[in-house]
Design goal:
3 helices, single chain
């Protein structure tokens, strides 16, 4: 696990005893380690580009854009097609060209929960009280032989996450997530690493996600993360479809009307890759 943190080694860090620590002390040291609140808040937009690896040789190019206060757009490019998940702070939508669908449609329940979390550019630990979250220190644990502080975060909607914070660097190295979907509890495991500086803010460039206890993990590797690039708000809003556009009213000319061809069913080209949870 230590090798995943090598990118942050250049920071001026505070190796303090893993003695009595409060949740607020750990979070304060985490924020200071990754650059401080001023550097974090100075970032208004983030654009991440990289690769998604779903295992078995399955890869896709990805692009994710965040814009304050809570907008996000995620793109997956595969076989010449681009799928989109987006959230503009009010509505979430997606386009799934792999299923022969070109028009946007609403996100499902689980997709919506995930993208709302992804829209929080800072993550749920930063200013957690203002976001309606609750955090408590629940003891020490180990992650692949590395000592870690264990924080329990309960989000405003009742989901629970356990953050495993490195005792030397105070950054999250693993997150366990419990989420209720249609009355059933689901558990996920996220591993974070390869922290690098972006506009004075150290962010993970390697993220692995999978069901808790499973050997199967999806991995995202960000090759570039850019801060404060101009991003148009329209990229996050639900686009108008051709069917929604007003059409001019004109009586048809029967002499020029051609018989309708019978619609042919398009084959199912498969499903788009799943965006792993971040944060």
């Amino acid at each position: 696990m230590r090798r995943l943190l090598l990118g942050i080694a250049g920071l001026a860090l505070f190796a303090m005893p893993a003695s009595a620590q409060t949740a607020d002390e750990i979070i304060a040291k985490y924020i200071k380690t990754v650059g401080g609140m001023e550097k974090i808040q100075a970032v208004k937009t983030l654009r991440r580009t990289g690769k998604f690896n779903g295992g078995g040789g399955f890869e896709a190019a990805i692009l994710e854009e965040n814009k304050r206060p809570n907008m996000v757009r995620q793109e997956f490019a595969l076989q010449g097609l681009t799928g989109i998940n987006a959230y503009d702070g009010r509505a979430g939508w997606k386009i799934q060209p792999w299923q022969g669908k070109k028009d946007p449609e609403p996100l499902g329940e689980e997709e919506m929960k995930s993208i709302v979390e992804d829209s929080d550019l800072d993550g749920p630990l930063v200013n957690y009280r203002q976001k309606g979250n609750k955090v408590e220190f629940v003891g020490m644990d180990q992650v692949e032989g590395t000592d870690a502080f264990k924080l329990k975060l309960t989000t405003a909607n009742g989901d629970v996450r356990y953050y495993y914070m490195d005792t030397d660097y105070y950054v999250p190295i693993k997150i366990d997530t419990k989420r209720m979907i249609r009355g059933a509890e689901r558990e996920y495991e996220t591993v974070l690493g390869d922290y690098k500086e972006v506009a004075g803010w150290y962010l993970p460039h390697s993220i692995e996600v999978g069901p808790k206890g499973s050997q199967f993990r999806q991995k995202v590797t960000y090759e570039k993360i850019e801060a404060n690039l101009p991003v148009d708000d329209n990229r996050f809003h639900l686009p108008a479809t051709a069917a929604a556009q007003p059409q001019p009213s004109k009586a048809p000319d029967a002499s020029q009307t051609q018989p309708k061809k019978q619609d042919s069913k398009q084959p199912d080209a498969g499903k788009p890759p799943t965006k792993p949870e971040v944060k």
